[in-house]
Amino acid sequence: MHFVDRIVKSGFWISILMLSVNMLHGQDAQFSQFYGNPIYLNPALTGSHSGTYRMMSSYRTQWNGAIEQPFTTFSAGGDVKFTIRNKKGSYSGGNDRAAVGLQFFSDRVGLYDYNTNHLSAFGAYHKLLGSHTYLSAGFQMGLGQRGINYEDLTFQDQYNGVDQFNQPTSEALPSNSVGYGDLSIGLHLASQPASDKGYYLGVAFHHFNKPNTSFFDRDLSIGEEFLPFTLDPKLTLHGGFSVRRSPLLAIQPRAIYIKQGQASSTIVGSNLKYNFIDADRVALHLGGWIRATDNLTTFQPTDFIISAAFEQRGLLIGFSYDYHLRKLSGTSLGQNTFEFTISYIGEHENEDRICPEF
Q: In the chain, what are the domain boundaries?
């Protein structure tokens, strides 16, 4: 019956929302193309490109076909890099760098318009340690906002006993919007000891101020028990290396580990980059990855990710597809995820790449 379906769906979605806020204290969205959105991954990667400025955008849609309205995540931003001249000479191409950036991020659950929005400012300093070796430190300062539309929520006390949910509810609903401040920091080390190889390693600590994201009063207590609704700090470790096997082909193994609250995930895999010999700065990127997650009870592979990107003169267009290996509600049909990224790096004044660009 229609009213039974409606209350079941409402209960399912409300359970998901309450679980994410109450049990896990909030989890960040993750991008499969993590180097396609580097400043979201680690603030120290602000300005980690070979030009003077970079513009980038990512769009992710998750669980298409498995639910009525899939989860969608969008980000757009850019950063600018400045050269700081050394007073006592420098290595070849060697000068410190400073960078600033700005990014807007939005994550939405469409069915009830449950959304998270962030506007963040970034800054980073890239210190030259030796020939083509940089140690980078960065920070993020952001303003976050979460909201939900109560109009489409249905509660059990609204059922009229016959066939409709048209009665008023006695639920004490708080304000449907909350704002908070957000702080993150990061470090990154990158080196290219030879023209045909390089390595990089980074660590980031997001939300170290533990922002309160509760829709309820900030001093909410039940009895003598205080109920915190904070966004858990997130630890991110990422790294990899690049080896050129020929003038045209490079192999780029990479790994990333993320832990937030009681949940964690690991992605391992590799990119292959093929440079076209008859074209100027034109390349094809292909990658394969495995994501494994710890969902409080087990640690197991959950996704197989394939990615591809085309690069030409600073413009890079990337696409990835996540095939879910585990089942949701007894079926894996429709649980797959699509992600699209586009970036542009302008004014290529040098060849120092402090981080992989895809």
A: 2-155+175-346
SS3 call for 10: helix
Q: Classify burial at 327, counting beta carbons within 10 Å of its beta carbon; exposed 0-12, middle 13-18, buried 19 or more.
A: exposed
What CA–CA distance (Å, rounded) separates 99 from 83? 9
| Tens digits of residue pLDDT in 182-193 | 999 999 999 988
Q: 351: helix, coil or strand? A: coil
Which bin fits 90, alpha (ψ -120 to 50), beta or left (φ > 0)? beta
Instruction: Look at residue 65 in the predicted model and tell me its pLDDT.
Output: 60
**Cα–Cα distance, 341 to 75 (Å, whole number):** 9
Quickly count: other Cβ atoms within 10 Å of residue 349's Cβ: 12
Per-residue DSSP letter, 19: I
Reading the block at residue 60, the tokens are: 């992710």
* Tens digit of each residue's pLDDT (9 = 90 or more) over 52-81: 999 999 999 987 665 666 789 999 999 999
Q: Looking at per-residue confidence, does 274 or 131 come out higher?
A: 274
Place of tokens 């009681």: 262
Q: Tell me the pTM.
A: 0.82
Beta strands in 133-229 (DSSP E): 133-147, 177-194, 197-206, 221-222, 225-226
CATH node for 2-155+175-346: 2.40.160.40
